[in-house]
Every structure is written in structure tokens, then in C-alpha cells.
Design goal:
Layout: H1 8-27, H2 33-52, H3 55-72, H4 79-101, E1 103-107, E2 120-124, H5 132-142, E3 144-150, E4 155-162, E5 172-176, E6 180-183, H6 187-194, E7 201-202, E8 207-215, E9 218-222, E10 236-240, E11 260-267, E12 272-276, E13 279-282, E14 285-286, H7 290-296, E15 308-312, E16 318-322, E17 332-334, E18 339-343, H8 353-356, E19 359-360, E20 364-373, E21 380-381
Antiparallel strand pairs: 1-9, 2-8, 3-8, 4-5, 4-7, 5-6, 9-20, 10-11, 10-20, 11-18, 12-13, 12-17, 13-14, 15-16, 18-19, 20-21
Helix pairs in contact: 1-2, 1-3, 2-3
């Protein structure tokens, strides 16, 4: 009745009695009569010791009952492995929960947000790759993978296609009229960065692709905030392209199945937009905020907002194409309710809402908040 005033060892002893009785109820039908009797005797001894309140007696009774538990409940076979597996499975469940509801990693696939964020970009070099130690450092810290594929014969490229490995590594399978090469880079990067395309002729010993590939910024996407507020102008946000009309006059993405894009949120519901290069106008006024100002300044890699987009051809030529929307300085667009206007900071090399219209609110996955790898100039909070 007055257990609140009992000493610590008595409280612990009484708790041990409760736990022991629960264990006995759980195991009674599995133990022999002798085991049940021994266990009940141990419980009784501990109860008497708690009643007498002697510290030494309680500790001795707890120890004896614990030894009885050890005899009747031997550790399961491979207990260490089982415990490690349980910890591993719990960690997986927690990680999946975080990924589903809070933070999800995302890789920048293209250069549409450059120089704010880097995509997968190829950089040809005239010299051979550095030594192995430098390559390991470049890959781990800079996210830079070196390639050096040389033609074995005088040959012509016939076909190029993606050849994913282990679902996470992107390779390009380059088929020539004489050989097959597997190059650790996306086919698009080989074409745009290294000028490799069907019909290209290589002499024996000539590099097909020599240089390095930047693997693209890896960012964390906050999937939590938009449950409590609507997306805001100037957010860098990620969305899927499901049910977004394919309007591009060159058959540009979005493609099926759905892809994930990362762009700058330029227009919110009700906004009227216009582009008079290099400036962006929102509701009749020049766009404000540092995110827009640096693009319109056309400095440090930024080129301003555009009514056209450049198209890099594998043979090295560049052509311009008009956008489907906002394709001249007088053109305007109004953003409907529950839809958003997305544009890349690299306006001249971005397929975005100017090609395929607005993004439905239900398509929005979250906002990009942090570049966690590589450890370069972009590492840290996304601006």
C-alpha cells in the first residue's frame, strides 16, 4: 500500500517478481512440472525477502532467480546474428520512413539548373587520366569519374544505348562496326560532352572518350514542409512529370514513364509571367529576390532568362529553337489555380514549363534543401 516509501532494492525486487510471474505464465505449458516448481520456489523466496526488506536477502534472492531463468531459458542459437539482423532491419525501416516522409536523396541529372546546381556533365581532356590515387580522391570528394576509352581499330560508331549496371551505375554501350565498348557515362553525356554519336569515325589509337564526368550534385529533398505550407516563388523544387502534357516541338521530355525534375519555382497560382531577355517579369514587374537577380545579371555563368533554348548536337554544332510558351518578349502566361510554373536557372539549356506548361500541385515531391555530395563549391544549403 505504501510502496512509494519502499527502499530502492525492495522496489526492484518487487518488479522482478512481477516480471517473473509473467514469464512463468508464458512458459508454464512448455516447462516440466519440476521446472515450474523450482521457478515458483524462487519467486516465493524473493517475495519473502522483499517482505523482510533486507537488502542482502533481496539481492541474493534476485540472483538465485536470475540463475534459474538462465538454466531454463538458454540463449538461442546464433543470438548475436539474430540481434544484428534485427538492428539492421530496424535501421532499414527507419531509413525508409525518413525517405518516404521527410528527406529523400536526389541526383541532378542535367545542366538545366547550372550554375546553381551541377548535372551530369562530361569534360574531355587531351591528357590521359591522373594516377589511381588522384582518381580515387576525385571520385570520393569531387564526384568526378575519369574515363579513357581508345579505339582498337579504324572503326565507325553504329549505335549507342544506355546499359545500367546494378540499377545505380550508368554506362553507355558504344557499338562500332568492329568492336563494342562499355563506357562509364550516360549515352547523352558521351554525345554532348565528348562528341560521340552514330556515324562518328575513329582511327586506331584515337580516344573515343577521354576525360572526366561530373556525377551531378546529390541533394536532399525536403518532403515534409509542403504538408504545412504551399510552395513559394523562388523555391528549388522537385516534381514528377506524370500527367504533364508533352508540348515540346522537338519531342523533348517529359517522357514516359514518369521522371523527376528539379527546377526553380517561378510562378505561383494567379501569377502572370513574361520574359524580355535577360529579364523575367512577374505580374508586370521585374522579378525580385536574389535568386532571380543573379540570373538576370547574366554574370558568373548565368545568362539571363530566354525566349529560346539552345540545342547541342553531337557533332558540336549548336542550334536555337523557340519555346512553345513565352517565346517572345510580348508573350504572357497566366498560372492557373493549384498549378506552378517551373524554369531552369540555365534558361538557354533548359526544358521546362516554357516547353510543357505548368506543374500540377499533386505532382510536387518537395523542395531541394541541401547538397550533400560532392564536397565542392555547391556543398551546403541550396540557394
Amino acid at each position: 500500500m505504501f510502496s512509494f516509501f519502499a527502499s530502492k532494492h525492495v522496489k526492484q525486487g518487487r518488479q522482478f517478481v512481477k516480471d517473473a510471474r509473467k514469464l512463468l505464465a508464458y512458459k508454464r505449458d512448455l516447462w516440466s512440472a519440476a521446472q515450474v516448481a523450482d521457478f515458483e520456489a524462487g519467486i516465493k523466496r524473493l517475495e519473502l525477502a522483499c517482505g523482510a526488506r533486507g537488502k542482502d536477502e533481496v539481492e541474493a534472492a534476485v540472483k538465485a532467480l536470475d540463475e534459474t531463468c538462465g538454466r531454463f531459458l538458454p540463449p538461442p542459437k546464433d543470438a548475436g546474428w539474430r540481434e544484428n539482423c534485427e538492428v539492421f532491419l530496424v535501421a532499414i525501416v527507419v531509413a525508409l520512413g525518413v525517405r518516404t516522409y521527410f528527406l529523400q536523396p536526389f541526383t541532378i541529372p542535367t545542366g538545366s539548373m547550372w550554375p546553381t546546381l551541377n548535372g551530369i556533365i562530361g569534360h574531355p581532356t587531351t591528357t590521359e587520366p591522373p594516377n589511381f590515387a588522384v582518381q580515387v580522391f576525385d571520385q570520393a570528394v569531387r564526384g568526378r569519374g575519369w574515363i579513357n576509352t581508345v579505339a582498337n581499330d579504324d572503326e565507325t560508331v553504329i549505335e549507342m544505348k544506355e546499359e545500367p549496371r546494378f540499377r545505380i551505375f550508368s554506362y553507355a554501350k558504344v557499338q562500332t562496326d568492329k568492336n563494342t565498348y562499355l563506357i562509364h557515362a550516360p549515352a547523352r553525356t558521351l554525345a554532348e560532352g565528348f562528341g560521340v554519336y552514330p556515324g562518328k569515325l575513329f582511327k586506331k589509337g584515337e580516344p573515343i572518350a577521354r576525360g572526366y564526368v561530373e556525377t551531378g550534385d546529390h541533394v536532399f529533398v525536403d518532403k515534409f514542409t509542403y504538408h504545412f505550407r504551399t510552395p513559394r516563388r523562388a523555391d528549388v523544387f522537385v516534381f514528377n512529370t506524370q500527367k504533364i502534357a508533352k508540348m515540346g516541338n522537338l519531342g523533348l521530355p517529359p517522357k514516359d514513364p514518369s521522371q523527376f525534375y528539379i527546377k526553380r519555382l517561378v510562378g505561383t497560382p494567379g501569377d502572370e509571367l513574361r520574359i524580355a531577355p535577360p529579364e523575367l517579369f512577374i505580374n508586370g514587374a521585374r522579378a525580385t529576390g536574389p535568386e532571380f537577380a543573379r540570373v538576370m545579371a547574366a554574370q558568373d555563368g548565368y545568362r539571363g532568362y530566354s525566349n529560346v533554348a539552345n540545342h547541342n548536337h553531337p557533332n558540336g554544332t549548336v542550334t536555337q529553337r523557340p519555346m512553345d510558351l513565352l517565346n517572345n518578349p510580348e508573350a504572357t502566361v497566366s498560372v492557373p489555380e493549384k498549378r506552378y510554373w517551373a524554369q531552369g536557372d540555365n534558361s538557354y539549356y533548359s526544358s521546362d514549363s516554357r516547353d510543357w506548361g505548368t506543374v500540377p500541385q499533386e505532382n510536387i515531391m518537395g523542395r531541394g534543401v541541401f547538397v550533400y555530395w560532392p564536397f565542392g563549391a555547391h556543398w551546403g544549403r541550396i540557394k
